[in-house]
């Protein structure tokens, strides 16, 4: 009898769990995924990393961001080998994720039913659903499992909609179509695997704002992405502020080292290894005389950074 009660209870719990799963992740689930973030959040649960930090992140080198994340145990946050709409530009933003899979009719029907319960448009293509959720400063990041032919997740129509909602762009492990039209959207940018004239076929959206894989990177909703001609790096939201200032200090150290090498005050061997106490003291004195107007951070942030290192 007890066995039967336990079994019925498990079945009921499984049913309730299945019923609670929608196409888009709940805010509670996103908060669990990003529990290390202690700041403000959007209504959907994603961390609200500030626009000021996103702007500062644009000046950070991929290698500096990668090195910082590796030092914190995050070894799988970079992906490269992209085609880029405007390779001369840099894009940063808060990630909205989408998962696409090869089409399976019974699963696709369930997704449509779930989407209908979430008041989504079930007449048009479901690839518009993540776009409708974008806010200014978001980046639409989609796992299209590298498919290009019949895997074109957007063309110029959806590209315009994406830019209207986010004032940003996309990162697609998949294809795009109508690249000529996408090139004409001022301010829009995209990292993608290839272009093809085909429409999206035999492929379906399965989830929004759940963990996805982009190449060799694991991406969570609410991550912050830095994308430039050298690749894309996905940064956990709770590490963005420390990564930015740490990388900015690395940039200042590089400036100091280059200047001292040109002055022939130190040898390359002295600069390209752990600095002596005398070089460290020289660097700190150099920083004191650095114009505040040219610092990438405020003087207080810089002093606080070094104060925390003592």
Automatic annotation (TrEMBL):
GO molecular function, one term: metal ion binding
SUPFAM superfamilies the UniProt entry points to: RraA-like
Protein name: Regulator of RNase E activity RraA
Keywords: Magnesium, Metal-binding, Signal
Record: residues binding Mg(2+): 178
Cofactor(s) in the UniProt record: Mg(2+)
Positions of substrate binding: 155-158, 177
Pfam families linked to this entry: RraA-like (PF03737)
Annotated signal sequence range: 1-20
């Amino acid at each position: 009898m007890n066995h039967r009660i336990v079994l019925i209870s498990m079945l009921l719990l499984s049913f309730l769990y299945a019923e609670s799963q929608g196409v888009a992740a709940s805010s509670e689930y996103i908060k669990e995924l990003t529990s290390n973030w202690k700041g403000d959040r959007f209504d959907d649960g994603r961390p609200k990393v500030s626009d000021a930090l996103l702007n500062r992140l644009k000046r950070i080198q991929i290698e500096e961001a990668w090195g910082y994340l590796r030092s914190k145990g995050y070894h799988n946050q970079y992906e490269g080998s992209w085609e880029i709409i405007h390779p001369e530009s840099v894009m940063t933003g808060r990630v909205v994720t989408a998962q696409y899979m090869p089409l399976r009719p019974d699963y696709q029907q369930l997704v449509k039913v779930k989407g209908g319960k979430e008041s989504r448009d079930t007449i048009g293509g479901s690839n518009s659903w993540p776009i409708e959720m974008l806010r200014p400063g978001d980046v639409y990041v989609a796992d299209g499992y590298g498919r290009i032919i019949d895997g074109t997740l957007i063309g110029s129509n959806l590209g315009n909609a994406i830019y209207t909602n986010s004032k940003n762009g996309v990162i697609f492990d998949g294809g795009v179509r109508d690249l000529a039209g996408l090139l004409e959207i001022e301010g829009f940018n995209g990292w993608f695997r290839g272009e093809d004239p085909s429409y999206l076929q035999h492929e379906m959206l399965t989830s929004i704002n759940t963990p996805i894989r982009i190449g060799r990177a694991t991406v969570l909703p609410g991550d912050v992405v830095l994308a430039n001609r050298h690749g894309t790096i996905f940064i956990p939201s709770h590490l963005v502020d420390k990564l930015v200032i740490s990388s900015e200090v690395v940039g200042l150290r590089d400036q100091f080292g280059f200047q001292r090498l040109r002055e022939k005050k130190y040898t390359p061997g002295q600069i390209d290894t752990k600095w002596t106490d005398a070089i460290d003291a020289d660097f700190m004195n150099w920083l004191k005389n650095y114009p505040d107007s040219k610092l990438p951070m405020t003087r207080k942030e810089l002093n606080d950074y070094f104060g925390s290192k003592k």
